[in-house]
Amino acid sequence: MTVIVRELRRGDPADAAGFARLRHQALPFMLFTAESVAYDLERAHPDSHYRPLLAEEHGALIGTAQVGLVHDSPEPGQAEVNIYVHPERTGRGAGSLLARAAEEQLVALGATRLHSWVLDSPANRAFAEQRGYRAVRSAHFLRLDLANGTLPPLQPQPPGVELRTGADFADAPRPLFRLDAATLLDEPSDIDREFTDYEAWLTETWRHPLLSHELTSVALVDGRPAAFSAARTDSGTRYATVMTGTDRAFRGRGLAKLAKNHSLHRARAAGFTDAFTGNDAGNEPMLAINKWFGYEICATEVKYVRDLG
Q: What is the total count of domains within the chain?
């Protein structure tokens, strides 16, 4: 058998569809579509040097890697490499070839620290550790059965609080950019990130093909965006909340829970049957909120880091 590694071909619908299909098979808790894969490549920030890789065996795609620099970190040299191989095609060397190609690519770009998410299994963890990576944290994927589960009832809006959707900000989303940037500061992470580039946020977040403006919920207090729950959907029946947060000045009032509940109810009414989200394993407040909604942990991943000499 011969496995080769190559870059995902820009403008190739078959490559984009293959990448999305492999990610769904290996990581069914996250949303990928051919359109989103192509968009991420075409619209990636130039400073990220984003270059997704594919592993191919006799013409069949069997593995993927997302590779790039963390361009919005104030600490230079931070990079990401996330590798997933088709569950039935492991043990053929695809993961090792993808890792080697990704690491060489990032070293050439000046990377000094590599960050990688690995599904929590003995084989996956051993693969990372054998390459010199060390575990630093873990996170959970959670699933909610929207079709058969019971959502908490919708709560009345407190005085001075108004619920809107992302679509209401379609022509002027800058207030949501400011709220997203503020809540990012409290997101558990091993990489410091800064949202200071509004145009980059518009491209990478607001105009992303998976983002649903209609299902994204925003809680306003006296007209000011105070909390939100950002929703993504695929081309089928899967829905995911990718960020839920509250501005520090408005915490302790249940606004994030209020916004997310309205988003979930609208998603179910729109016909979505599976809801996904992710939480850092140490983020007890958000884990408690998601348990209240009925989410259950369906998988765990571990963040591994490798420092380059």
A: 2
DSSP run (H or E) holding 236: none
Q: CA torsion sign, 197 to 202 to 208 to 212? A: positive
Residues 104 and 209 in one domain: no
Residue 294 sits in the same domain as residue 148:
yes
Q: Which of 164, 162, 149 is nearest to 268 (CA)?
A: 149
Query: Do 254 and 206 touch, CB atoms closer than 8 A?
Result: no
Contacts of 34 (CB under 8 A, 6+ apart): 13, 16, 17, 19, 20
Token pair of 51 as six digits: 């270059």
Residues 6+ positions from 104 with CB-CB distance below 8 Å: none
Q: What is the pTM of this model?
A: 0.93
Crossing angle of the two packed helices 255-269 and 284-293, in degrees rounded to 10? 40
Burial of 72 (0-12, 13-18, 19+ CB in 10 A): buried
Cα torsion for 95, 127, 33, 196, to the nearest 10°? -120
Q: Rounded CA gap, 89 and 10, in Å?
A: 25
Q: What is the pLDDT of residues 90-146, one digit of tens each?
A: 888 999 999 999 999 999 999 999 999 999 999 999 999 999 999 999 999 999 999
Domain housing 164: 144-300
| Domain presence at residue 129 | no
Q: Return the bridge partners of 55, or none.
A: 5, 63
CATH number for 293: 3.40.630.30
Q: Which of 96, 111, 126 is the last residue of a domain?
A: 111
Give the DSSP H or E segment for 257.
helix 255-269
